[in-house]
From TrEMBL:
One of its GO terms (biological process) is translation. Keywords: Ribonucleoprotein, Ribosomal protein. Residues 156-172, 180-191 have a biased composition (Low complexity). GO terms for molecular function: structural constituent of ribosome. The keyword Hydrolase does not apply. The keyword Ribonucleoprotein applies. InterPro entries: Ribosomal_P1/P2_euk. This is Uncharacterized protein. GO terms for cellular component: ribonucleoprotein complex; ribosome. Residues 106-127, 156-191 are annotated as: Disordered.
Length: 212
């Protein structure tokens, strides 16, 4: 029984401590809100313009956040030393601009990624087309190679025949030249013999004339 009673007492004490902590926190929040409400006029914010207000914490500093009704601005108050409120204005337009900038940056990044992927695909397709064209050209060249080799061989054979004919013509020309030289020598010999015969005939005629 004593153990149960001790446990019950400790549980009651814990619950009371928790309740006290909650009450203290609520009182602090109420004090902060009261400070904020009292400071609305000093800060240039009318309490009718407040759409929503709540108390939060930024790191170790408690903050009070107020959403204004007409302009949609957000006021953030840092509760500094000596319970002084430090106001930070975050306009809705600025928030929208920041969101728009973030969206634009994301869209630009996505567009750049799409553009890079498209360029990579186009480059890959162009490289594939070039490779296919090169392969086709190689196949065509390989197919034409035997056909191109045949005319070259024929031309080489014709050149060899022409060289043989040229050699034969040179030899014939040499033979003709030798024959012409021999005929010329024979004609010269015959002319000399005729001249000698004419001289002999003239001498015989002169001798006959002297004897008569």
């Amino acid at each position: 029984m004593q153990m149960h009673s001790k446990r019950a007492c400790s549980l009651l004490q814990q619950q009371q401590q928790q309740q006290q902590l909650l009450q203290q926190q609520q009182q602090q929040q109420l004090q902060q809100l009261l400070l904020l409400l009292n400071g609305f006029a000093r800060l240039g914010v009318h309490h009718d313009q407040v759409q929503r207000a709540y108390v939060g914490q930024k790191g170790t500093l408690p903050i009070i956040v107020i959403h204004q009704r007409p302009f949609g601005e957000t006021l953030v108050f840092f509760v500094g030393p000596q319970r002084r409120l430090v106001k930070v204005l975050v306009p809705a337009q600025q928030q929208q601009q920041q969101q728009q900038q973030q969206q634009q940056q994301q869209q630009q990044q996505q567009q750049q990624q799409r553009r890079r992927r498209r360029q990579q695909r186009e480059r890959g397709a162009a490289a594939a087309v070039e490779a296919a064209a090169a392969a086709a050209a190689a196949e065509t060249a390989a197919a034409k190679a035997p056909a191109a080799a045949a005319p070259a061989e024929a031309a080489a054979a014709e050149a060899a025949e022409a060289a043989t004919e040229a050699e034969a013509a040179v030899e014939q020309q040499q033979h003709h030249q030798e024959a012409a030289e021999a005929a010329t020598a024979t004609a010269a010999t015959a002319a000399a013999a005729a001249a000698a015969a004419a001289a002999a005939a003239a001498a015989a005629a002169a001798a006959a004339a002297l004897t008569t």
